[in-house]
Amino acid sequence: MQPGPLLASGRTADVFAIDNAWVLRRYRDGGDTSAEAAVMSYVRSQDYPAPRVGRSVGADLVMERLSGSTMVEAAQQGRITPEEAGVMLAGLLRRLHALPPRVSTNPADRVLHLDLHPENVMLTRQGPIVIDWTNAKEGPPALDRGISALILAEVAVSPRAEAPAARTALASLLNEVDDVIDLDGALAIRAANPTLSQAEKQLLGEATALVRSLYLVTG
C-alpha cells in the first residue's frame, strides 16, 4: 500500500495518513500485524476503547484515524493533571481486565496490553482510546499492572522534564490498584525489550525500587 503523509513515528513503526477516516501504521522491520489486529477487534467488540481496524496485511495495519491528543500532550498543555492521568490509567487497566480472554482456556487469564502508559492513550471527544496493541497477549492481570507502573517509574527516575509528573501519576495509579502487581515479571519483560537503550535499561533497578516503595505506601 502506498502511504500518504507521515503523521508520527515511534520506536518501531511509522504512522501515515490515508484519508480523514483511516491511517496506516507500518513496522519498519517488517512483521505480521494480524495478531494485533485480532486483539484490537476483539476488545472493541467488547466495548473497550480501541481504534477500529480496517485491514492487516503483513507489516501494515490500517486503522481508525483518531482526533485528539495523547495523555502526555494533554498533561503538558494543562488539560489533565498527573493525578488524573494515574486514575485514568488504572481505570483503563481495570476495564480491560474485566473482559474474558479471547483465546486462552484458563478462566483466570485476561487480555493484557503490556504497554499501557500515557503516550498510548489518546484523549478524544468520545473519551480515552488505547492505542498500540503490539505487545498484547493473554495472562495474569498483575503483569499488566506491573508493566504500566514500571514504565511510569522509568520516566520518574530519568532526567527528563516529565519526571516529577510521572512520579505523581505513578503514585496515583498505585493508589487506585486494588490487587497485586507482578513487578518481577514486568522487570524481566522490560529488561529484555530490544527497543530500550542501554541508558534506559540502567534505570530499571532504580525504577523498580521506586515502584516498590510507593506500592508499600499506597498498596
Q: How far do the termini sit from each other?
A: 48 Å
Q: Order of strands side by side in the largest beta sheet? A: 1-2-3-5-4
* Tally of helical runs: 8
- Tally of extended strands? 10
What is the helix content? 40-55%
- β-strand amount: 15-25%
Structural class: alpha+beta
What string, H for helix and E for strand, traces the elements in order? EEEHEEEHHEEEEHHHHH
Shape: globular
How would you characterize the largest beta sheet?
5 strands, antiparallel
Q: Which key phrases capture this entry?
A:
8 helices, globular, 3-stranded antiparallel sheet, alpha+beta, 219 residues
What's the topology here?
Elements: E1 6-9, E2 13-17, E3 22-27, H1 34-45, E4 53-57, E5 60-64, E6 69-70, H2 71-76, H3 82-97, E7 110-112, E8 121-124, E9 127-130, E10 137-139, H4 141-156, H5 163-176, H6 183-191, H7 198-201, H8 204-218
Antiparallel strand pairs: 1-2, 2-3, 3-5, 4-5, 6-8, 7-10, 8-9
Task: Please describe what this structure looks like.
Helix 3 (82-97) crosses helix 5 (163-176). The mean pLDDT is 94. This protein is α+β, with helices and mostly antiparallel strands. A five-stranded antiparallel beta sheet has the order 1-2-3-5-4, covered by helices on one side. A three-stranded antiparallel beta sheet has the order 6-8-9. The protein has a two-stranded antiparallel ribbon with strand order 7-10. Strand 8 and strand 9 form a beta hairpin. The protein is 42% helix and 19% strand.
